[in-house]
UniProtKB/TrEMBL annotation:
Lineage of origin: Bacteria, Pseudomonadati, Pseudomonadota, Alphaproteobacteria, Rhodobacterales
Keywords: Acyltransferase, Cytoplasm, Transferase
Job of this protein: Functions in the N-end rule pathway of protein degradation where it conjugates Leu, Phe and, less efficiently, Met from aminoacyl-tRNAs to the N-termini of proteins containing an N-terminal arginine or lysine.
Name the UniProt record assigns to this protein: Leucyl/phenylalanyl-tRNA--protein transferase
NCBIfam families: aat
Reactions catalysed: N-terminal L-arginyl-[protein] + L-leucyl-tRNA(Leu) = N-terminal L-leucyl-L-arginyl-[protein] + tRNA(Leu) + H(+); L-phenylalanyl-tRNA(Phe) + an N-terminal L-alpha-aminoacyl-[protein] = an N-terminal L-phenylalanyl-L-alpha-aminoacyl-[protein] + tRNA(Phe); N-terminal L-lysyl-[protein] + L-leucyl-tRNA(Leu) = N-terminal L-leucyl-L-lysyl-[protein] + tRNA(Leu) + H(+)
Top EC category: transferase
Gene3D superfamilies per UniProt: Leucyl/phenylalanyl-tRNA-protein transferase, C-terminal domain
GO biological process: protein catabolic process
Annotated family: Belongs to the L/F-transferase family.
UniProt-listed InterPro entries: Acyl_CoA_acyltransferase, Leu/Phe-tRNA_Trfase, Leu/Phe-tRNA_Trfase_C
Keyword tRNA-binding among UniProt keywords: no
Amino acid sequence: MHDLPGLSPRQLLAGYAHGIFPMALSADDPRLSWYDPPARGVLPVGGVHASRSLRRSLARHDWRAEVAEDFDAIVGACADRAETWINAPLRTLYAQLHATGHAHALAVHCDGDLAGGLFGVSLGAAFFGESMFSARTDGSKMALVWLSDHLDRCGFLLCDTQYLTPHLASMGGVEITRRAYRARLAAALAQEADFRALRPRPADELADDLRTAAAAEG
């Protein structure tokens, strides 16, 4: 961990390309530090696990996902909690990356209301998930299901979650060594992908694939 006196969007992307990422200690602390954990969390691209209750909710309610145009609103919702590492300098950097096509947000709606979402940074065929939120039950889980599917369809090879949490592990996230992560990162950076190339799939198509995957797992 190293304190950063200032960070530009170009420097931020260079850090991601080298396997490190910045965080603040709190929303009120203007300083940023680089982090390089010995183990890294990654989420399957096109293979996230959806529980039976999650699949049932997808079938019973009017769910839909979209690449969010109001990027800052999603970042703000992710930061709207008692403790967050997203400070003002980071929000500015993310907005600048969004303007240049290197940061994206995904929003999910249920029965007409915003239910959850997430945002992250893209570079090559790597997506670096930053944060997510839920506004109702299953909101962030649905966002992860759609994200995994969307990244796969758009040509991404890596979905980095930085750290592995029980929430991510329940959906198929795993922890890999720093060395293994950097090898996967290098392979992803050698390819190109476009987060905005396609729209997220309709819920009924996604539900069909999830049912097929669950049946194959037995």
